[in-house]
Automatic annotation (TrEMBL):
CDD domains documented for this protein: SQR_TypeB_2_TM
One of the Pfam families matching this protein, by short name: Sdh_cyt
Keyword vocabulary terms for this entry: Heme, Iron, Membrane, Metal-binding, Transmembrane, Transmembrane helix
Protein name as it appears in the record: Succinate dehydrogenase / fumarate reductase cytochrome b subunit
Originating organism: Chryseobacterium geocarposphaerae
Annotated localization: Membrane
Transmembrane parts of this sequence: 12-38, 58-80, 101-122, 155-176, 197-218
InterPro entries, sorted: Cytochrome_b-558, SQR/QFR_C/D, SuccDH_FuR_B_TM-su
Amino acid sequence: MAGLTSSTIGRKYAMALSAMFLLIFLVMHLSVNLLSVFGEDAYNNASQFMGYNPLIQFVMQPVLIFAVVFHFVMGFVLEIKNQNARPVKYDSNNPSHNSTWMSRNMIISGAVILAFVFLHLYDFWLHEMNYKYIDGLPIEETRFWGDLHAKFADLWRVVLYIISFVLLGLHLAHGFQSSFQSIGARHPKYTPVIKAFGKWYSILIPAGFIYIAIYHFVTQL
């Protein structure tokens, strides 16, 4: 790992790999949470499996936490190094003509998303850790849907989730393609397919999470 992150190219490659891991996780996370829209039992069963499976809890969960922390830290490191490498901004440079706003401000969207991740962990992960390992409460198979549903009773939380997922979509719109480019996946035949898939991914994944938040809010009115 030290060798992989000792150079700029290595850091970009490592960041791209962590991004791809998180892209897969988002699909899995959305799939499980969408079950809450279709039925309480389906979501409760899936959540119980995810929450009490030793492989997921003690292997995959630490790997996921590491990937999240690594991806954001590496993003900040790369941004700082890029800023230091370009201490002088030429007057003739017009970045709006050469790149999108999001590609120039990935660090901003990343920081907001990271703050949202902490809120999300506070809402759900910390609650689970307290329930299982601090209070040591017994398994209650029907509690998961109710816990999720109750979190979206407040409008301010729903609005915050929507804003965060819109920013996630903008972040993904650039980051999806960028992660493939960083590992050298550039080809006249495949790059347009990657771009198109990345565009739909950056729309559908955040839209799915937004729908879940709105659904649980509206069904409580």
